[in-house]
Amino acid sequence: MVLTPVLAASLLVCGGGLSLALYFGSLALLRRIREPALLAVFLLVASLRGLLPVLSVLGGPFPLMDGVALLRFDGVSLLLIGVTYVLFLRALFPEDVPRLLPQAVIGVCAAAGLLILLIPADSLGLLMDWSRLLLMLVLLAVGILAVLLMRRWRDGAGWVALSVLVLVVAVLVESVVWPRPGLPLRDTVEAIGPVTTGCVLFALGHVFLMGARLNRVYQASQTLSRHVVALNRRLEERVTEASREIHATREQLEAIVSCVPDGVLTLTADASVDIFGPGAERVFGWRGQEMTGRPVVTLLSPEWGERLVKSMRRFAAEGVLTYTGQGPVEMVGRRRDGSLFPMQCTVTRIDIGGQPVFVAAVKDLSEVYLQAQQIAGLRRANETLRQDLAQLEIWGGVGHCLSEWQDGRWTWRCSDGFLAVWGCDTGAHPETLAGFLAGVRAEDQLALFSWLDRQDWTSGARMIRLSVRPEEERLVELSICRVRDDHGVVVREIGIVRLAGVTPVEAGKGEESMATVGDNAPGAAVGAEAVRTILLVEDVEVNRRVAVTFLEREGYRVEVASNGLDAVDMAGRGDYDLILMDIRLPDVDGVEATRRIRALPDPVRSAVPVLALTANVFGDDLSRYEAAGMSGVVAKPIRMPQFRTVLGGVLTRRRRQAAVSAGPDWTSLDQILDETFIRDRRAALGADSFAVILDLGRRSVSFAAEELDRSVRVPAPSGDDVAKAGHKLAGAASNFGFSALYALGRQVEALCEAGDLTGAVSLGQQAAALHRQTDAALDQWLASAR
């Protein structure tokens, strides 16, 4: 075969195309980029289209391809060139080239390729002519589209236009010179050369196109990066400068405000006091003439005095004073009485007659430190109190809600204690009070909602019954207070709920009716006269809760006073049918409070029956109670049968002499719990009410045990304090059958009253350990009782 110039040019360009295909294929594999991969396929197909026929003609290791095979290969390769070009264009311009265009081209080319491979040889020439014409039209259309899309990169668009033009010319030349039947194979191979050359030039045009595009993008990104870096640098400089100015201003203000000295003194180079001003006299307690000439270390703590001595030695050797550091320094001073205190000192050096003199301005920081400690302590106490109140609200069976008129609508919110009383989950619950009241018994709802709809009252309360679960009902006291504006319109409603008791449905169904707190509520079970209100005087929270629960379950309204003076005041103003009086109260005891009640000028109020509520039920105590005017004694802990007997006897006026109920016979420290008493108490209160009050009781007993332990471990115990702590422990423990703690508290109180403080202190030191044993035994009993 003769190597013609056209054939040589085709071989050269095909070799370059194969090299470029290898390069872009490697780049696509390494960087996993789609565009180089498509370009590599394009170059490979274009190069093989000219190279394989040439190698076939040359012979050697490659088999000779006949004219039909070359014709079929030529047609398929032309279609592959068109497909890869469209895919490459889609990859370069995904936002401009529709997705359906490559799919349509692939479908058409696949159908044409199938025809080329399957059509008979005698019809192949005509089909190839039409295929070249179709390819030429497609390439023209796609080239025009590429030029339009590439108008933003004019250099690349020119290369695309040139490559498309060369390819179209090559296809036209090939259509003219393509061999007809009988033309030698050599002429056929030489005719393929222009088409192959055009295809490779077409691919190289895209290489320059992509390079121009990437170069412009890179230059734009570099320019943007430089602008961003410059802007960031300027911003950092501005921020640094502003921060420096703010810091300097803050230091100046702090120096002006916080360094106003309380006293000024001057020091010589040997650290002796030269001038001791009046302010320094007030700070340190020394007089000026006493400190003149004395070493300044007298005014400092040992640590700071040693630091001053070292600093002055260095000053004598090097002429540099580093004792005070930069600006004011906080140090520890010493007063004349030897007490240490925090102070702030600023030292300034001046030269007088060539001799250095140091002026020290001092400021006493004792008040500042004390105020900071007080503020921190108040914050901690406030946070602790807030948490304790929230928890006690839940444990104590109380809660609150608030309705406010804001921005033209009512807003409503409630506490976790409110949800606990209503038996609702904190996650899902009604959003209004009316939604909660939907759980009230049907026979109570009519009167309740009628009362709420009325606008003629400002505050009031109702006892309501809730059907929380099918097997139980809850007795809840709902108190509401309304706040009105200047026009008398209600703008806020504050609601308080309190869990009064839990009743099984079978036992309580139909036995109670809803009553206003101010309405008549007849006493139950004892056959007494109609009793409306009982005044309970008790200073211990858990004891109040237990007594209130029992009395309200009996149908009485209960008001509470926490000390004797309040009890006398409430008895003189209110109308009560009975007063339950604790003996040990914070201000005046129950005996003195009863005497003052009996001395009231109102004959009706002064004659109200008073029952002593105490654990002291011995002979001398009973005589003292009766002499003060008390009508009877109810021993702690309250037991319902004995309580009803004493209460009924007094209220029905069947006995005017003192009625007494016996207290518990818990005298041994070995019996940790009275399980029978606990079971009876649980049955009397109901499981839910008992659980709520038991939690509060355990906390109360814990506090009482800690108070007794502290009172006996101080350096000089007080008999009154130890006796009060023992009484409080016995009272708290008596309500829940904590027999050992009750016995311990009663014995400590008895030893103090007998004057044996040493024995009381020794016995009281067992309170903490006995409390831990009680907690463990109670947990075990509760686990077994489930």
UniProtKB/TrEMBL annotation:
Residue ranges occupied by any PAS domain in the UniProt entry: 249-319
One of the protein's GO biological processes: phosphorelay signal transduction system
InterPro entries found in the cross-reference section: CheY-like_superfamily, HPT_dom_sf, PAS, PAS-like_dom_sf, Sig_transdc_resp-reg_receiver
Membrane topology: Multi-pass membrane protein
Pfam families: PAS_9, Response_reg
UniProt keyword annotations, A-Z: ATP-binding, Cell membrane, Membrane, Nucleotide-binding, Phosphoprotein, Transmembrane, Transmembrane helix, Two-component regulatory system
SMART domains: PAS (SM00091), REC (SM00448)
UniProt signal peptide: none
Entries under PANTHER family matching the protein: HYBRID SIGNAL TRANSDUCTION HISTIDINE KINASE J
The protein's name: PAS domain S-box-containing protein
Lineage of the species this protein comes from: Bacteria, Pseudomonadati, Pseudomonadota, Alphaproteobacteria, Rhodospirillales
